[in-house]
Structure formats: structure tokens, C-alpha cells
């Protein structure tokens, strides 16, 4: 008896020691040695885990971005740093309204552009006058960042901060510090004597002028407003090439001291930009990422490839680092509010991105755009609230409660039942080497569900699952209903409603062995698909809806369609343009879609290309005016390649009053030939030309969406000439999905 007890004790100690050793070796980044073979690299990858702040950050799941500043008033995406602070004057700014919307959407954190690229600060900074202090808003006494942090604290929402390293005001103003080639010198942060007096800690660094200014700004936002959970360092710069460098090492060090729970995102070690601004997600989003050098000195470049973390990618790594993805996009077409013509994503679209990001091992950072009143626009508020309502309703009740769960293999301390105990900290794990075990869940009753949620124990065991499949029994036979690749923090599968009392999860591939901390099954309300509206070159509008027997109603007078509005039976003509709004219903109008609205200008039926640059075979210039967003004109990339400027001259067939023009860049994840700078000219006779506008499509490289450019005044024109002066990648090409005019 005695020996048995001591044996048990010994065993326990051993086990404890093993667990300790296991967790000891787990780390945020791990070096790969030249002697490590493939198996050793895979084994090491399972030891890469989030640090505490990354784990906390991941659990926010859904986060609000807020873009607000002079751009909101100037209706632009990027400011030039020369804007008059007097433009900043919101009439009804109410941060409580922002935070209530954020909360209703189910988001956990709000991150505002405290300073965007224009350099304008939304708080009272001691190191620049380019801020709310110089604006008429609240007689220069206002503090947007302060109001937001106060409102957020009241409603239990966390705070993050976006502080643009690029600062156009410091580039453009006389004696500006950005890129002024100043020598480094010993400085104190904060530099302001008053702030120093109040400071818990005064930092000392060797910095040039701009880094001194920037670190003071960083200090101000991080030390005066309570806890901060994310700091967002954008890599974008409207005017690169000034020679300014950033002292990231000092920035990061100060952030860690002032806000130890703040995740440093994008140009930083804790959170990775997903690689696009359109809410696109990867099929397999890994958080364990290979990097070519020591993370302490790494410069964190944009990682845009589809595959970042497969076994194949890991084999070339020098280090493996826990580097989770953040998926970002804006509710509106653009990061800043422009006007009510700006597109607003539908609830359906937002929900889909939510599923792909939160349910695809990523955090969803969704941008809202307060308008010139200083309020989130009404349309956006109602959509965000509806989004939050649907998400909450979908995941209210985990129908797995009360099930019996078994696994084909389990390590003693990590039994299968840990997957259904509702405690994320307990988990199931088979023995090492069991790479493809199976789990069977017997539900307490026959249950209907259409969602499955899986979560790995990333906190201590990292990310391991590479592929899985889900089956249910139907008439006593197993039948596959869903498949997936990686899991990580969370994988949510959507499938048509099933009814069963038994399901099986087959892990098809994993690294060393899988782990799962929680499984959920849910019965989520399905949204009806929205109608699709399209118009041909000839001006014929077609409306469809991808569900059986839809009943579609529409309007063209701007009013909201309902079942009393004309019913869509066949394509109708709208050659002069207008607004088409449509709604689809099924089941004798018991279920209806959202209202979809599309704005059209004059159609291109009568347009003729007068002249154009060369085209690659199969990509001729007529495709730029064919009304089809999927086709494009592309200058040659084979044979004789010509450089910018490229020109396209169009005869509109009649003289029209033009207010502006639009450019739709290609939308196939390829940036080649996307126009960066342009000139647009007009003519009534095709001989005498007047320049209507010359400019740059701001931020089009990161966000290649539909561009509408308004002229300063209206021009009569029968002919128009579009000239591209450069492209986003500085390549010689031009690509144009569509070019059109704005008359309405
Ligand atoms: C980009 C910026 O240039 C945009 O204006 C926006 O802030 C987006 C989130 O990041 O790189």
C-alpha cells in the first residue's frame, strides 16, 4: 500500500515536472536551428504560443476602428497636412452614441485615429498646434480621444489607439521635423515640464526631432487616458522617400512600460495586418508564422501571401513567432465619411466577414465613420445594431450541453469531457503522435443545428490542427456535413440545418497531436440572400436573387421598396441612370431580404473609343466601358511594353454636363497597372481640351475600391480623356476595369 502510494506520488511529481517542462519550453517565439529537421521544426511549432496580451487581445474577437478627423470635413481619404484646423468642427459630436453602437454590434474595443496621416491630433497635444486645440470645436478646448475613453469606460468598452507614424503636417510645414535629417540627441519623454512633473516615469532616449515629437504624442495618449489594449502603427505613408526613420525599439519599450497589456499591431510584434483592407480572409489563417530573423529586431513587413504558415513555409524559417491576424475593413466604401452616396456594407456582407474572420482564427477590426455632425450615420447605426442582434441570437445557446463525448485517444489529464465543460481553460488532448484522432458526441436528444464552433487550446499548446471533417448520423449512417482546415483560437463552420442526435469530428491532420478546449453547436437564424442588381452597357437593369422562387419588388424613385412596390418580372431600361432599390421576399412575404440600393449614371451604350494606348491581347480598351466590372483594359505586359502616360479618349455621343468621373480598379487581388495619379480632361469638339482635374487616388494601393472624383465645377463635354500618370506599383502598366462619368 505504502509503496503504491509513493509510486503514485512519484508519478504525480513526474507528471507535474513534465507539464512544467512542456510549458517552460513553450514560448512566444522559438529559434529554428540549422540542425533541426522537418519533424523537429513541426514539434517546435507546437510550442509557439501567444503571450498574455496576445491571448487577451484575441478574445476581443470583434473590434471597432473609428476614422475621424479633418478628412471627414474635406471628404478625402488622405489629408496633405496643410489643412486648416478650422475645418474640424463637428456640430453634435457624441462619443456615447459611438460607444452604444459599438456595444450593440457586440464589439469589445474601440480604436480611434487619434492622429491620421495628416498629423492632426484629436487630443490636446503639447508638441503640435495641428490639433483640436486650433479648431473652433469647443473653442479649441475639446478632446475627442478623451471623450471617447470616458464614454467607453462607462459602457465597459476597451480602448485602442491608432497613431500614424507618417505625419504630413510635419513633412509639409515650415521647419517640420519629419525627415529634417536632425541628429539624435538625448531627450526626455515627456519633454513638457508640466507633464514631467506629473509623470510616474520620465524616459530618456537618444532621438532625432521627429521621433522626439512622435514619442511625446505616444506618451500623451498612453499615459493620460487609462488602460490601452492596442496600439496600431500603420505602415502607409502618403509621401515616402523623405529619409525619416522610426526608432521602433524605443517606441515599443515605452509602450511596454506604460501599457503592458497593449498589443502592438501592424508595424509591431504582437498583431499582424491581414494583408488587405477589404475584409478578405485566408482559407487557412495560421498564427504561428515563420520569420527570417530575430523578432527583437525584425521590421514586421506586410505579409500578403495566401499561405503564411503551412508546413512547407515553416521549413525555411529562422524563427517561429506567434503572430495572429487582424482582418480589417470599413462599413463604408472608404475609411472616412464622405456623403450619403458612399456605399454602406449590408448586414449580410458584414455578417459574412464576421464569420470568415472571427470564425477563421482572426480578430475582426471593423471601421465606422462618424460624419460631419460627429455621429455615426443613421444607416450605419441600424445595420451595426442588426448585425450585433443576429450574432448574439446565433450563439445564445450551446446545444451541446448534456452530451456524452468520447475520443479515440485521450491523455490521462486531458479527457474528452473537457471539450464540453464550458471552461476554455480545460482541454482535451490525445497522446503525442496521435495526429488524426476522432471524437464522437452523443447529444441528449435529436437536435437541429447549422453552426459548429471549434476552439483549440492555443494558450499553452499553440495551433496544431491542419484539417478536419464533421459527420452526423442520418438513418443510422455517417454522413459528412462540413470540412475545415485550421482551427486555432476559433473556427466556425456554417452549413444548412441538420437534425441528428450524434455527430463526429474527424481530425484529418495535425502537428504532433491536436487539442480542443471547447466545442459548440448552434441553431442560428439564417438571413435571406439579398437581391443582386446589375445593368448592361445598353442600360438594361436585371435583378436576381439566389434563392428558389424569390419575389422581388423594386423602386426607381428613391423610395424604400416593399411588397406594394412594382414586382420585378423582366429587365427594364434605365439608360439615363437613377437609383434602383430592391427587396426580395419568400414564403408569401414572410421572410424578406435587406433593401439593396444601387446608383447608376448614364449608360455607355452610345460611347465610342476615339483613341487608346496599346492593349494586351484579350484586354482591349472597349472592356473599360463595357459596364462589366469583371473585364478590364490592360496595356501590354508582353511584347512591346509602353510606360505611362497611358491615355483613353472617349466620345460620349452627345454633349452632357459632367460633375466628375469614376474609376473602378481591377478587383482580382492583383495590383498591376492600378492607376495612382491621373489627369482628366474634357472637350466639346474633340479638339480643344480643358483639364477638369489632376490628382491622386489616395490609399488606392491598400484599398483598391471604386473611386468617384468630383470636379470643382461642372463642365459641358462631348469628349473625355483619361490619362494615367503612374501606377500604384510604379509599374509601366495601366489596368482599368471601368471608367465612367458622373452627371447626377
Ligand atoms: C491605411 C491608411 O492609409 C488608411 O487611411 C487607413 O487608416 C487604413 C486603416 O490604413 O494604411
Provide structural commentary.
The protein is an alpha+beta fold. It has 4 domains: 263 residues, Alpha-Beta Barrel (TIM Barrel); 119 residues, Jelly Rolls (Sandwich), CATH 2.60.120.260; 69 residues, Immunoglobulin-like; 135 residues, Galactose-binding domain-like (Jelly Rolls), CATH 2.60.120.260. It has 14 helices and 34 strands. The strands form 8 sheets. The chain has an 8-stranded parallel sheet. Strands 14, 15, 16, 17, 18 and 19 form a 6-stranded antiparallel sheet that branches. Strands 27, 29, 30, 31, 32 and 34 form a 6-stranded antiparallel sheet that branches. β30 and β31 form a beta hairpin. α5 packs across α6, α9 packs parallel to α10 and α12 crosses α13. The longest helix is centred in the first third of the chain and has 24 residues. It is globular and about 85 Å long. The termini are far apart. The relative contact order is 0.09. About 2% of the residues have low confidence. The protein binds beta-L-fucopyranose. The site of beta-L-fucopyranose has 7 residues, from loops.
Structural class: alpha+beta
Per CATH, the superfamily of the largest domain is Glycosidases
Low-confidence stretches: 10-24
CATH top level class name of the largest domain: Alpha Beta
Task: Give the overall silhouette.
Answer: globular
Largest sheet: 8 strands, parallel
How many domains in all?
4
The helical percent reads 10-25%
Per CATH, the architecture of the largest domain is Alpha-Beta Barrel
CATH topology of the largest domain: TIM Barrel
**Bound small molecules, deduplicated:** beta-L-fucopyranose
State Rg: 28 Å
Mean pLDDT: 95
Cα separation of the termini: 92 Å
Strand order of the largest sheet: 8-7-4-3-2-13-12-9
Topology, number of strands: 34
Count of discrete alpha- or pi-helical segments spanning 4 or more residues: 14
Proportion of strand residues: 25-35%
